[in-house]
Amino acid sequence: MEAKAVVVTGSSTGIGASTAEFLIAKGFRVFGGVRRKGDGARLQSRLGNAFTPLVMDVTDGEAISAGARDVTRALAGASLAGLVNNAGIAIGGPLSHLPLDAFRQQFEVNFFGAVAVTQAFLPLLGCGDTATGKPGRIVPGRIVNVSSVSGKRAMPFMAPYSASKHALEAVSESLRRELMLFGIEVIIVAPGAVATAIWNKAGDSDFSPYRETAYAPALTRLMAYLMDVGPKGDPPERVARVIHKALTVAKPKARYAPVQGKFINWTLPNLLPTRFVDRKIGRALGLID
Q: Looking at domain 5-205+233-266, which of 3.40.50.720, 3.40.5.50, 1.10.510.10, 3.10.290.10 is its CATH number?
């Protein structure tokens, strides 16, 4: 029996790499989106022939189309079991000083990239009559969009990232209802802090443009906090297990939130008055007395 196939974007490191590895261990065939050939070769060497790299920057429309054609040829008429939109970046800074191009770059990857990839692979997921797992029968796949706690709650100085994840959640909800026509599930997986290599990049973030602004002390405090809690976050394997569940459970939830210390870090802040939470964050960062 041929292994079920899944496309995972942003599979070079972190959640994407762990998801590819976990799905392969569970018997899936994974087409992993990477931006560099070297990353694809490295992963294929480690994961074996069940992993097929797709050199596919999600901001490059031609690369996405080429990737969809490659997967179509490889599946030879079969359908995809799933698409995991995981590719993403995080851009931050005080909104009053951020150039608009920072917002555009954030949305190009986290939002428009996910939409473009989804549109390209929808036929293979069973949206129409072109993908059939069996002669004369469409087998609907599933779409998993990797969001974040920031998809519901926004921290100061992370407006571009939070806005992109809010937008991804909105389009996921709309698409979930549209695709009921074809039986295709759309599921959000929104983790909290995850211990990945992204924190190494965060430590190298250049906030020098804001050094002379009133926000400099608060930015320093926020970065210290993030660099403390980020590396202590959940292992990416935990998120990979949740993504696997979203792809395979008979009746998936519309949204999963694997958050470390869920009651304190997720449930309680959602129950407390918004202005109260504002003041707690403001005092922690020195934005108010």
A: 3.40.50.720
